[in-house]
Amino acid sequence: MLYQIYETQRSIMEPFSDLAQAASKLYGNPLNPMAQSPLAQRVSASYSLMHRLGKDYVKPEFGIRSVKVNQSEVAIHERIEIDKPFCELRRFKRFTDDPATLTQLKNQPPVLIVAPLSGHYATLLRDTVKTMLQDHKVYITDWKNARLVPMSDGEFHLDDYINYVQEFIRHVQSIYGNCHVMSVCQPTVPVLAAVSLMASRGEKTPLTMTMMGGPIDARKSPTSVNNLATNKSFEWFENNVIYRVPANFPGAGRRVYPGFLQHTGFVAMNPDRHANSHYDYFKDLMKGDDASAEAHRKFYDEYNAVLDMDADYYLETIQTVFQDFKLVNGNWDVKGVDGRVERVKPQDIKKTALLTVEGELDDISGSGQTRAAQDLCSGIAPSDRKHFEVEGAGHYGIFSGRRWRDMVYPQVVKFILAHSPAKAAVTAPAAAPAAPAAKAVKAKPATAKVELVKASVAKAPAAAPEKAPAKSLAPAAVVKAAPVKTAQAKLAPKPAAKAKTAVKAAVKAASKTSTSKSTAVKTSWVKG
Fold first, then answer.
1. The pTM is what?
2. Which helix (H) or strand (E) holds 333?
3. 427-456, pLDDT tens digit by residue?
4. Is the dihedral of CA 205, 210, 215, 217 positive or negative?
5. CA dist 212 to 92, 119, 372, Å?
6. What is the pLDDT of residues 392-407, one digit of tens each?
């Protein structure tokens, strides 16, 4: 009944919100005589704030049109790779007509970003995606609003979430051979489960897992979110926060945890902060500070846009992650698409490197909750495991904003590159066939150099092993292969022909000069 009351109220408020927006523009238009009155700017600001408090916030766009790669502007085309009933796998395809930049783009590693399904849309990670696009091929999970999914598409469980993640990983692997996975907040738990199940079956697992601010072990440093989940029973959540979707939506009749309740909970965590933020917006409009006002609009256009979650998924997440702690207790069983039930065993992961990231001031996933994955993944070599704590960062700071770009991203890109196959090791030996041209030159010093290059090329691998980390292949292969170009430049046929011509001229001149000059000419030829 609460959902119907909320929708009725929203429908009633919608025309008043639109009217407030029109009034704000009217009093803010310099061509309007009323806008010249002393109170016009205050009235315009008041109506603008009223409009934003009463409007309905729809799903925002990612809106990433281009990014800079190697100082070159690269166009971005957003497209849907896989369309599932409850999720879309989106790819941000990059385009450029610069040959050097295109080569660089082709050699960059693919990354699957698993966005949270916890009330907000995947566009909350817009800054994460835009930054990652500078050095990676980027895919992201874009979860759908459950109230828009017809009942005919069935229910959605936590097990389905995990199966989706596995399908998306296999899809990216089928294109590039392998990939890297990044999970932010809520999906750290199902992503770890998905990779664990793949490892237990002997499937190819991602090269790396980057887990940021997630409740792997919600018992550590519990926050207000954790306390709510533990202080209330499973039945309380089922009876008090689960409602049916009203009849005016495609998913009418579906049991969901409504987005507006989730949003109310977010605001209730820091009501003073949000109240001050709206008052600052009002003052910015009064002062004519358009830049600050626009920053406020952009943030709350994202923050206020929420989605409904399927009831089964939400309740199972509460029970599995925050009440029974099944992942850390080792008793979590997941049902696959084939109906088979399997135990989640993170210790079975051996060929996937792990990076965990936490914010020092995170008030949603407390300190130590994400780091717990380091202990669970005991099968991963210590050298392939790393933890990074971001000083002064809250929950959003580890994946969005200045701290994400300046502090976290350099660590992420470094970790991913260190565990990516070295493409340079594969392509470098291709220059070796040009070396035999040196056989036409008879000078002994040059021959010695050619044999050294041949030996280096022979030692270089013909191709990089599929899962070998870059840090073991790249330095040796690149350093040894580098002399090939230098040797080719010195021993290329054209310079050799010029040397022969010079020798003939020198020999002809030698018949007219002294023996000492002839000796000097021969020495010069040998050096050339």
1. 0.78
2. strand 333-335
3. 333 333 333 333 333 333 333 332 333 333
4. positive
5. 21, 17, 12
6. 999 999 999 999 999 9
Name all contacts of 327-333 with Cβ < 8 Å and 24+ positions apart.
Answer: 327/189, 327/192, 327/193, 327/216, 327/217, 327/376, 328/216, 328/217, 328/219, 328/372, 328/376, 332/193
**255 φψ region: left (φ > 0), alpha (ψ -120 to 50), beta (else):** beta
Q: Would residue 52 be called left, alpha or beta, if left means φ above 0 and alpha means ψ between -120 and 50 degrees?
A: alpha
**Dihedrals φ, ψ of 144, to 5°?**
-90, 155
Q: How far is CA 61 from the centre of its chain?
A: 17
What is the number of alpha carbons within 13 Å of residue 112 lying toward its C-beta?
Answer: 32
Looking up tokens 């897992």 gives 209
Could you give the 3-state DSSP secondary structure of residue 498? helix
pLDDT value of position 423: 58
Alpha-helical (H) ranges within 202-317 are: 224-231, 234-240, 259-269, 271-287, 290-303, 311-317
Q: Using CA atoms, how far apart are residues 324 and 241, in angstroms rounded to an integer? A: 20
In whole angstroms, give the CA distance from residue 112 to residue 175: 12
pLDDT for the residue 323: 95
Residue 403 has which token pair?
């701290």
